[in-house]
Amino acid sequence: MLLENLTHKIKVYAFVGPSGTGKSYRAQMVAGEYDIHYIIDDGLFIKDNEVIAGNSAKKAPTKIETVKHALFLTEEEKQDIKKAIKKYKPDSILILGTSDSMVEKIAENLNLPNIEKKIYIEEIATKEEMETARHIRVTEGKHVIPVPTFEIKKDFSGYILDPLQIFKTKGRGKDPYISEKSIIRPTFSYLGNFTISDTVFRQIAEYLANKTPFIDKIIKTRVDNLPEGPYIYMEVIVTYGTNIMEGLAEFKEKTKKEIEKLTTMNVQKIDIIAKGIKMPEREE
Asked: CA-to-CA distance for 244 and 30, rounded, in angstroms?
């Protein structure tokens, strides 16, 4: 009931156009024209330049699963976005979709009010621009996410945001490869350009470890470059009395989520190794 009381005040807009015609590329421009600070696109809930909830629908293994994620069909996905809406209390939201029925279904699944205005890609882009966008999608496999542009340093780890889980093969017996990857290339960015190096990943992981009571001391931290994303390796001393497997698993999940939230970079793998236990001091 509380969420319904909040959502009835939200103005809902939609930006509609066929897949690959440049909607996401122009999303920030459309949002700026209507003073909208929140965007729903491909399973993500974005505030200005930050992904605040959801998971990229492009990570789904099949096209059918991709559509399901984008429509927020599961209760877990719905609740994730609804909690964010309740927390941030947006005045307006822009929903991106490939058709009228898609954006209407998204609004319905998230218990949002009826869409107040629909903007169509044909109103924003010329036929030539849409054809160019389609050509880039097909030939270069690039998908745009409407969040800030990042500069890539030489020691940068991984793809920006999410590697897309869409695989192809060159023939029978050949290894599969990722045929499409997310890139970040908005029309403009409120915050300008950013540079992120591997040191940032290490510092975040060590900060979280130092704030975790279960971990007594950090012995070693290493960040390795992998094509799929950064690999973080950490050796620690843990405190006696806590389930080691559960503690390590919880810390790994927390670290992965925090790094991806703070940097919008995909973390490929995290290994946390318990090298010893700090025993309680004996009483005299």
From this structure: 50
pLDDT tens, 48-67? 877 888 877 666 666 677 77
**Would you give the DSSP letter of residue 214?**
T
Asked, for residue 203, whether it belongs to a domain, the answer is yes
Which positions ≥6 away from 48 have C-beta within 8 Å? 37, 190
Q: Which residue in this structure is represented by tokens 């992904």?
A: 51
Contacts of 125 (CB under 8 A, 6+ apart): 17, 21, 22, 26, 133
Query: For residue 98, which amino acid is it?
Result: T
Cα–chain-centroid distance for residue 220? 29
Q: What's this model's pTM, rounded to 2 decimal places?
A: 0.53
Residue 108: C-alpha distances to residues 65, 81, 136, 224 (Å): 19, 13, 32, 43
Phi, psi angles (nearest 5°) of residue 117: -150, 140
Mean pLDDT on 177-200 = 50
Distance CA 72, CA 63 (A): 14
Pair (184, 86) in one structural domain: yes
Average pLDDT over residues 15-26: 80
Range list of H helices, 95-221 = 100-109, 121-124, 127-140, 198-210
Q: What is the mean pLDDT of residues 110-117?
A: 94
Tell me how many domains the chain contains: 2
The answer to whether 262 and 148 have CB atoms below 8 angstroms apart is no
Percent composition of the chain: helix, strand, coil (DSSP 3-state, to 5): 35, 25, 35
Question: Do both 80 and 67 map to the same domain?
Answer: yes
Separation between Cα atoms, residue 109 and residue 103, nearest integer Å: 10
**Looking at the DSSP assignment, which residues form a beta bridge with residue 237?**
217, 276
